[in-house]
Protein 1
Amino acid sequence: MASLYDKAAELWNSNYFSTAPAAEELAAIGNETQKTINSTIRQLNRNNKIEESIAAALNFNNNNVPYMRPKARPLSFSNQLNVYSSKPTNVNLKGSALDGNWASYVPKELIFTESSNRWDADATDSKGRRFVGALQFGQSRLNDLIKNGVLPKGTTLTMLKNSPAMQVKAGNWHFQDYINRINNPENDLRKYIGKTLPGQNTPLTMNSLLAMAHLGGFGGMSKSLRSSGSYNPSDSLGTSLASYAQRHAY
């Protein structure tokens, strides 16, 4: 059977369009062709939406999309790479927070689970507290950074959000401060490294302690360890100190 296009070509070549029946026949061909075109366009749009969704999932640093605080913390960075690619080097991270000039002791996995790798992350929790940047610093820790001369007086959360250089400087000091306090014999916290909290199955590491301190403050981390995990509050995303310690025990 000849296709609509073959039939149209045949009619065109035979100069058949001068008659009224031919005009009606051409109109019918046009309607059928339009239906085919519309159907094709709808399918292309569906395919494009799928491709856009995949691209968005892979694009960890799409600065054109406003940051929205997730309902739950994302998978760890390494797990995300395993999901999307067997070759992590294929994922474009250029210009991202993970490429920042962080000190070797700053856990990059923590950067990912805090902000999905966004320098410009800006979120407000259920208590009205604002957290910004790749490491989601709040006003309390910003006050510490200013008090210790890491950042200049007058620095605001918005200024910190807009300056990757400030964020790196703050992050490097932030974790070095926690490491120094963990290693301080007076605090007696290193003894918990290698132990396993009740209900967990992975021994604690230094990164576990850093993750707990980052989530619940140094005092919260200390209290949780000294209580053998019975003190285990959760943040507004439902992430508990113990679960965060387990997630970052690498």
Protein 2
Amino acid sequence: MYDIKLIVGLGNPGLEYQQTRHNVGFEVVELLTKKLKVKLNKEKFSAAFGQAEFEDKKLILLKPLLFMNNSGQVVAAVANFYKLTAEAILVITDDMALEPGMIRLRAGGSAGGHNGLADIIEKLGTDEFNRLRIGIGSRSQTPGRDYVLSRPSETERNLIDKAVTEAADAVMVWITEGVETAMNRFNRRLTSDNSSEIDKQ
């Protein structure tokens, strides 16, 4: 019998949101589909849905097709259908509290002001699911909603692209070796000079 794991990338559906800061979770899932040779060619549970078998595990990859603030409806529907524990779920999302180029994996915790995570916590009734946060930075002069729905500068984009690649690698370690090993290996600054690169803009 397969061990089932659910991997969810958060973002907003639609061409107008592609490459925005808020959609980095989608980008990680898209990269994972290439690594795992799976296509998100079905629409199930109001999400782009794909399945893969890897290392005696059944993997479910999702990109919710509802908007970010309603992500919990999708995650809860899949979790209930497959009778998943919170520990079998990994949610990938952007985070304004982290600089571009940084990633952080955690086995649980608060929403940290992220509406998508808040909705998932509410709908699942627990905050003990795994989450992988990708830094997008913040700009104090720009309202949060406008900032996350905009596209990063070229310098930031380069850092975010590296973080997306690193995040996909972290997911693969989470699948095969568990959250503690993945945290120990990937919870570090992707580059040592992120701050200086951003300051040059």
Protein 3
Amino acid sequence: MPDAKPLARAGSLTDVRGLRVGHFTEVRRPTGCTVIIAPEGAVAGVDVRGAAPGTRETELLSPLNAVEKVHAVMLAGGSAFGLDAAGGVMRWLEERGLGVQVGPARIPIVPAAILFDLWVGDASIRPDAASGYAACEAATTDPVAEGNVGAGTGAAVGKLFGIHRAMRGGLGSASVTVGGITVAALVAVNAIGDVIDPQTGEPIAGARSEDGQRLQGTMRSMLRGELLAPMQPGSATTLGVVATDAVLTKAQANKMAQMAHDGFARAINPVHTMSDGDTIFALGTGASGRSANITLLGALGAEMMAVAIVRAVRAATRLSGPGLPDLPAAGDL
């Protein structure tokens, strides 16, 4: 697996030709949204594994359904309220004439998913349509900003012993080019479980000990029979996007999204829980003009997803302040 520690060397989702990424980071409390724009459209798939998802327009990504391409994907904080951000993305795209022509209207296709970050700050402040529009205005082909930005602004990990023993999550990205085809991942890590370094098998961010000074090791604690804090469904969620410039069918895009969940499982433990709405979208821009073995694309997508998860928590910074829980980052322990 590529070395996940040097943050400057792992690439970015914007290495995939045909994609732009923009963040909106809320300054009034830790939350925000991240948009992935495909101006020329991208074939898309999705795979939802968590038990408490919050999504929009995912059913149309089934190979059985008619729409072939999407024009953007929105990831947002704010729990179900954050789905409003996709409306701002639609407005931005419509103003630029992007969408599917249906009779007299051109309708942008914008699947979306949300994570729960209402633990931190004033829960009445969450991403809305203006936030989604602002994220589009900020979208660029530059390397994706990582850490506590966009959808990763209010993210936390390691919440199975209570939010007071959790740590900072965040947003990360990674890419690889093999045989002239690029595969990349972007992820907002807000898991109920710990983040694990796949190279060592050891947690690098997650639930802390009672004194807050060291990592508890959630799975080791569970095996010892230690009791978990009561958790409500939908109080976490990790959201990801895998993308390639290869030519994909909708069935292949859905398989790529499915395989990318292996990256979640390598780097988050436990994952896909009753409190997580873990969702991964897959995008194929076709900009390379080449097809590729979907097993290869799926395997590379899972690998880049695991790298991006580690990068997300390594790029995070400590959360503290009036009315906020004290959540150290990986670099603080």
Protein 4
Amino acid sequence: MRPAEFVLGLVLVLATWLSVLRTLVVPRGLASRLTAAVTWLVRVAFDGVASRFSSYERKDAILVGAGPMTLVALLAAWVVLFLGGFSLMFLGANAQGYTQALREAGASLFTLGNVSTPRLLPTVVGFFAAGTGLVVVALQIAYLPTLYAAFNRRETLVTTLQSRAGSPAWGPEVLARHQIVQTLDNLPAFYAEWERWAADVAESHVNYPVLMSFRSPDPLRSWIVGLLAVLDSAALHLALNPSSRQSEARLCLRMGFTSLRHLCGAVGIRYDDDPRPDAPLRLTYEDFLVGIARLETAGYPMERTPDEAWPHFRGWRVNYEEQAYALARFVEAVPAIWAGPRRGSPEAMLPVRPPNRQPETPDVS
């Protein structure tokens, strides 16, 4: 019996189990240091490769594997730590040398079957190792449907935004498209749906932060850019039309920036949680006028002038701009206009708009 090795192995096994439980079982986003370290290493590796390319499409093609690889790396890290911990426990219980202890730990952990000593303590360790291997793999398998269900819920609404805001999404385009196709009366229902979406994303992505690294199937779509566009459209709607129906837009905005704050907290991004309504924005007044020009071109009705609307729009956007820009940079989202800078300073992309062909004007888009 080697008590020191046995205790050290037991501590390693229990610490690894704590990481597994905090990551896969406890629904409160309690990230362990091991999970954070593995996620950071995978992220650094993928960012390092992606940074060698200037094309956003090439970057996206590389970064699309970061989320799934994080899951594989986490499972591998847990298995290696369990293998090391049980090897030390077998070494402490049998004192037959580390090679023999590693063989017994591996055979037990992967449930390959092994013949151990008839002594009680090594037998108990073997049973514990075999159960650990089965349970951890089962938990990881059960974890995947939960992740992909949340991913599918997120992407469904992001996909529907393409016909309303173009790709990549842009706040003024949301209002412009609704005006062009004469569906402004649908805005209250639209904002109510996105309020529920923001709440769902906050709940799922805070509990499972790895979902933030899962990218949309289309390189020009992004969940964070989509949310930012919806919030910008709501802020514009409130700033330009104070007499219109506003409750759904206000609730969407409040849930939206609350969601962004929770998401920033989950990945350790710091932000000002009580900004002044007259605080400066990264978005300039000149950028704001570009959005107003798009609305004027579409014939969107406006009760206020741009000068009158700007303080109100700024007062809303200051609540979410900092967090949205930080998250968009964190996940290396598509570089859309009004969506902040990216690493390597790629040029912001204008939205690709769906054509609006009509019988009398078949060639007009």
